[in-house]
Amino acid sequence: MAVLVIVIIIAIAFVIRFYEKSTNAICQSQKKLDGRVAIVTGGTCGMGLEIAKEFARRGAKVIIACPFNEEGINARKEIIELTGNNDIVFKLMDLSSIDSVKKFAAGILKSEDRLDILVNNAGVGVPNDFTTADGMSFIMQVNYFGHFLLSLLLLPLLMKTGKSSDPARIVNTSSVMHHFGMVDMDTLNKTDYWIKSLIYSKSKICLVLFAHEFTKRLKGYNVVINSVDPGAVGTGIFNSAGKLRGMLLKFLCLYLYKTPYEGAQTAIHVALDQEAGSVSGHFFKNCKKTRAVFWAYNNKVARQLFEESVRLVKLNQEDVDNCFKSL
What we know:
Radius of gyration: 19 Å
Number of helices: 10
CATH superfamily: NAD(P)-binding Rossmann-like Domain
Order of helices and strands: HEHEHEHEHEHEHHEEHH
Helix content: 40-55%
CATH topology: Rossmann fold
Strand content: 5-15%
Distance between the termini: 70 Å
Structural class: alpha/beta
Oligomer: single chain
Low-confidence stretches: none
Largest sheet: 8 strands, mixed
Number of domains: 1
């Protein structure tokens, strides 16, 4: 009986693997990025590194950001060696720190004349959550609030760069887990969840709601923002689940679902594809436009989330108004 069960499990695994691997889409855009500038948060490992490599292959100046100096230096070296593109910059940025995000954004506005693509890719899984020095849930601040603030602060440069024929693009990396995310303004920063994955899910639906609200506020500007579900990808994000469990989850995702290269494809598609650049506030999976969970399009919740996020990242209305002014 035990042997039969094992055989059945293996057979099911092979069916899942065949289906998933055969339906994993690859970005088909041939767009070159010579003279363009792209920022990839978390561009030093996993999917972010694959995204950064692809932008570099296409000729872009690529700025990769993460809070780990050695990881960033090694990633920059790897990208240059693999692509032959020397215009790769590593900058330290800790998304769990408002001051760090502000410092990073200020440096970009000072050093760069343009910004064509911002990929909000960095994220943490489900470590033990805690309240940061800024008074926010660590998971929420890294996955959502930090990217919300970064996108606002870099908007003037994105607006300056975007054109009606080729808008600047913001790409948010969401997750299939957004289906389980619930947004309540009273518990937006709640950290004492019994199931920490619910905080992760909340951070991922917030990214979709953020894109929905930003789209309304960006009307008349040549900037689009869309969200992607990369699928189940075998990356280091599972390390937070514990050493053995994390290794198992990573292996299963790599074998049955997607490698980091495969997981990166939808974000690359949304950043480059001509049709994807003509829409905003949409949700993509496997390089195709699809729909997020229905409550991700709630206008009232999206507006309230925007307003509460502004408060939590310590901006005032004048600050926000200035973010919506092109350089």
